[in-house]
Amino acid sequence: EEMRNNLKKGDHVLTIGGIHGKVAEVKDSTIILQVEGGVKLKVEKTAVSLDSSTQLNEETAKHAAMGDTAK
Questions:
Q1: Of 13, 23, 50, 58, which residue is the least packed, with the fewest Cβ within 10 Å?
Q2: pTM as predicted
């Protein structure tokens, strides 16, 4: 939930429905997500699964668990 509350314009995110996009606008309970072709979608914040920093942290943790420290 903290990640969703800290979303900001320009963040790259993935929704629970598998949609990848960039945050174009943040409102109280929704975001405007810009996807391929410049299309903008209104999405509930609760539908955001990952942001780019979360994904990077998970990928780093995965490599660390496998003993691979190179990025």
A1: 58
A2: 0.71
Predicted confidence (pLDDT) per residue in 36-48, tens digit = 999 999 999 999 9
Give the residue with greater pLDDT, 41 vs 50.
Answer: 41
DSSP 8-state secondary structure symbol assigned to residue 71: -
Question: Which residue shows structure tokens 């900001």?
Answer: 8
The DSSP annotation for 1-60 comes to -HHHHT--TT-EEEETTS-EEEEEEE-SSEEEEE-GGG-EEEEEGGGEEEEHHHHHHHHH
Q: Are 51 and 63 in contact (CB under 8 A)?
A: no
Q: Which of 21, 54, 46 is nearest to 32 (CA)?
A: 21
